[in-house]
From TrEMBL:
PANTHER family: OXIDOREDUCTASE WITH IRON-SULFUR SUBUNIT (PTHR44379:SF5). GO terms for molecular function: 2 iron, 2 sulfur cluster binding; metal ion binding; oxidoreductase activity. This is Carbon-monoxide dehydrogenase small subunit. It comes from Pseudonocardia kunmingensis. Residues 3-79 form the 2Fe-2S ferredoxin-type domain. Keywords: 2Fe-2S, Iron, Iron-sulfur, Metal-binding, Oxidoreductase. It comes from the Bacteria. Residues 155-164 have a biased composition (Basic and acidic residues). Residues 154-177 are annotated as: Disordered. InterPro entries: 2Fe-2S-bd, 2Fe-2S-bd_dom_sf, 2Fe-2S_ferredoxin-like_sf, 2Fe-2S_ferredoxin-type, Beta-grasp_dom_sf, Diverse_Oxidoreductases.
Length: 177
């Protein structure tokens, strides 16, 4: 048994017959062919699959494709119409070295876009709390926080030499203490 879904992905209408249990992450990767939405866990633990669903940041491994029917999804590929010009958030991640292997980067960038749409000028604490559900196995998050502050038009130096108590639970300070 399949169900027909119509989902606007990065401004383009898509239509497919899908199994009711198909996750949005798999729809984006396997049906639409967009590979920036990474699947890291299938359990909502890592955030590598974060996309915007009708403008709201969601982990696409928690949403069925049928639940996204008649809605709009934005993926990393859809942030900038010109591949030569990075979206300001992606540019800030690059400038502040907020990535290493790059696996988590699309999810981090999409979560940041969602965070900044809700809070255009977050504090360091708000950045750490806002990205708490997105994991990076390579970094200490320090440069990711710097990148988000820079994307918000804040001085990334604000993330320098902050005491550990400013870190949200479960979100590394990047310090060795």
């Amino acid at each position: 048994m399949t169900e027909k879904v119509e989902i606007t992905v990065n401004g383009e209408p898509t239509t497919a017959d899908v199994e009711p249990r198909l996750l949005l992450a798999h729809y984006l990767r396997d049906v639409v062919g967009l590979k920036a939405t990474n699947i890291g866990c299938d359990t909502t633990s890592c955030g590598a699959c974060t996309v915007l669903l009708d403008g709201e940041s969601v982990k696409s491994c928690t949403v069925l494709a049928v639940q996204a029917d008649q809605q709009s999804v934005t993926t990393m590929e859809g942030l900038s119409p010109d591949p030569e010009r990075l979206h300001p958030v992606a540019a800030a991640f690059r400038a502040e070295h907020g990535l290493q292997c790059g696996f988590c980067t699309p999810g981090m960038v999409m979560a940041t876009v969602g965070l900044l749409s809700e809070n255009p000028s977050p504090t360091e604490r708000e950045v750490r709390e806002g990205l708490e559900g997105n994991l990076c196995r390579c970094t200490g998050y320090h440069n990711i926080v710097r990148a988000v502050l820079a994307a918000a038009g804040r001085d990334p130096q604000e993330a320098e030499d902050k005491p550990a108590e400013l870190a949200a639970p479960g979100f590394s300070t990047g310090s060795s203490e």
